[in-house]
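Technical annex, item 7. During the second reporting period the consortium partners agreed on a shared format for inverse folding records so that results from different sites could be compared directly. Each record opens with the tokenized structure and is followed by the designed sequence. A conforming record, contributed by the partner at site C, is shown below for reference.
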């Protein structure tokens, strides 16, 4: 075997292994890549040793594997650190990468809800078409009506748990039916319809102050989570239609992992929404204070995505781009030109 040619053919994978070893933080996919490269490089070192390769190459590859072994063992021994990396790197980056989809979903959803609310408020024909009976709706919209008592008819902790479970289910439907596109669109439309009808009836009763006072404290973040779920789900479905430059299988696998990451992260976001809806929305705090708490939660989430998520996504993109040249002097042991092809 020509050991120089063999080493030359594998130098890019060794360079990538060195790059991952030096990288301060690794995503889950990068940790898997590190382990796979470490295993293959170990086998390659054994093969080179059996054919008496260049001692400098053997020494350099051995040193690289020693450093890689430390990273591999550390990654396997620290599951809590991986969980921390998930919430500081994996989840915000996945949500950030899909921002055009979920911001587009947000705009369309709010437009549809607003149009429905205006029609319900101003058009008897629209109310009839939507199956809303004419007459007095004060049992729903009046002070102490079902719209307001919905948030206080159960104990706070039980209601928060109920809301968390329900919202997680709705978001999961929007996420994982997105691969079929139409079911996700239908789920989003039904939520927009329900919100629009409720808002229209409250506007018709001149009680929009109560509507926003009860919706905004929890609904701002809750709806954002739904929009993220719907947008990421639709992106998954569109990847099946248009995989881009990658093969359909590779593109779907990549986007499927991102979708699963978002699904897991949204469970935590929706827990916060459940706590807000269970303890803040029905509380005796003034409406401006309750709304301000909802806006604070929303602002923190958007900062988390567009500051932390953007920075991590840019770091990942930079790390995945291998330079054509390899100027690092620590890798000078790599063969530069094969002696025979």
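Designed sequence (site C submission):
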């Amino acid at each position: 075997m020509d050991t120089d040619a063999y080493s030359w053919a594998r130098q890019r994978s060794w360079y990538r292994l060195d790059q991952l070893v030096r990288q301060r933080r690794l995503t889950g996919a990068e940790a898997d890549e590190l382990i796979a490269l470490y295993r293959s490089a170990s086998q390659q070192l054994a093969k080179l040793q059996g054919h008496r390769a260049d001692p400098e190459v053997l020494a350099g590859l051995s040193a690289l594997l020693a450093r890689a072994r430390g990273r591999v063992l550390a990654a396997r021994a620290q599951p809590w650190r991986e969980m921390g990396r998930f919430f500081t790197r994996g989840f915000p980056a996945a949500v950030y990468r899909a921002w055009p989809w979920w911001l587009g979903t947000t705009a369309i959803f709010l437009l549809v809800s607003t149009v429905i609310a205006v029609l319900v408020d101003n058009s008897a024909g629209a109310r009839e078409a939507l199956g809303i009976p004419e007459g007095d709706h004060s049992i729903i919209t009046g002070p102490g009506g079902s719209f307001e008592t919905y948030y206080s008819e159960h104990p706070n902790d039980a209601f928060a748990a109920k809301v968390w479970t329900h919202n997680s289910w709705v978001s999961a439907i929007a996420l994982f039916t997105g691969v079929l596109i139409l079911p996700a669109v239908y789920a989003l439309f039904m939520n927009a319809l329900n919100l629009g009808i409720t808002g229209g009836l409250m506007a018709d009763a001149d009680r929009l102050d109560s509507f926003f006072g009860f919706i905004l404290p929890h609904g701002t973040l809750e709806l954002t989570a739904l929009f993220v779920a719907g947008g990421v789900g639709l992106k998954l479905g569109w990847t099946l239609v248009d995989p881009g430059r990658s093969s359909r299988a590779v593109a779907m696998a990549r986007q499927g992992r991102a979708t699963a990451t978002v699904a897991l992260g949204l469970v935590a976001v929706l827990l916060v929404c459940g706590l807000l809806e269970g303890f803040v929305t029905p509380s005796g705090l003034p409406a401006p204070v309750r709304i301000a708490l909802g806006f604070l939660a929303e602002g923190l989430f958007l900062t988390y995505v567009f500051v932390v998520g953007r920075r991590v996504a840019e770091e990942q993109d930079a790390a995945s781009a291998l330079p054509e040249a390899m100027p690092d002097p620590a890798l000078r042991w790599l063969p530069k030109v094969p002696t025979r092809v």
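Confidence is low (pLDDT under 50) at residues 322-327, 337-341. The two ends are 11 Å apart (CA to CA). All partners now use this format for quarterly exchanges.
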